[in-house]
């Protein structure tokens, strides 16, 4: 075995061994990279250089801003208003509260950009309400955690920014626009699954539809939904960059949460900022350490070798597309979302483009695959949060989620093989 192959073995074997031993992902990435560099006799100063290089990006400044925006809006009392708006839209249907849960997640995801925040915020309100109205607790939890993945697709998703930075040359505005229709398609798919189960179990309907109530709730929720318009219209229209739009959205979110909805006082703002620091430290450390890992992969020509191995397996583009999804789904079962995007994108994107997948379309595929991974053991963060919020054992939640996994996989396949689902809106709006 050559020195290069041995270095690759040390890098990947130590990484997956530490993952199985439940090391924090940032430690696993960094330590495996250090072992690889030591074997190659390279100076450890390269570690510091690559870490600084990994986070020294103007585009990445949008990530902390979007996270702060989501924390402010999520803690500013808007969850109840978005739930009321969703109830006015779809609460009249059979299994109305499940439909409300799914639509509210679409609205809230467009503000928080985080599946975990969606599950914790909306789940803590809607799961008890659903149980009180006669829904099974495991079904209520399953609907909450699966619908939370809509927020990963609907802008402003900071994971889209991470993908755009990692992929290089991919427009953040195009990714933002590309996420709307796939997010809506996922919502419709989950609603169909929920409706079938609701009819089978005879779950209740909500109040009859009222146009006046819809307009009333829309006027109340306007200030929250306008935050998304600021980001998307500003970026797509070329008024400002994604980073500048994120900074403006933070100021707007602060004004709305403190002075309009009054869900936060200044003491609460400082508390939210403290929570943001915790989240940001995790994300930025992952980005920095993943930069070292990516440096090792590139130096050892792993992306080229992986591309050759996968394309050598078959030249059928359909099978290759399915294989890319399978790889991402397996990674999602053992790794968190940001590391997958940072590590897998440089390896798999060239393969995706070689079979005709647009980088924007592939970005949507990556994000949805990672979202499904957030719901699968053993590293399903959103699965754990949903179980903790509802106090339902994880085993029961997983069993209740099985029909919704099918809905999500069907959506993933449609996005994979129908490019227009992701690309039509960016193309129409230039």
From TrEMBL:
Predominant location: membrane
Recorded superkingdom: Bacteria
Limits of the TRAP C4-dicarboxylate transport system permease DctM subunit domain: 12-421
Membrane-related topology note: Multi-pass membrane protein
A Pfam family annotated for this UniProt entry: DctM
Transmembrane intervals: 6-23, 58-78, 99-127, 175-197, 218-240, 246-264, 276-295, 307-331, 338-357, 363-390, 402-425
Protein name: TRAP transporter large permease
NCBIfam families the UniProt entry points to: dctM (TIGR00786)
Subcellular location, record wording: Cell inner membrane
Keywords: Cell inner membrane, Cell membrane, Membrane, Transmembrane, Transmembrane helix
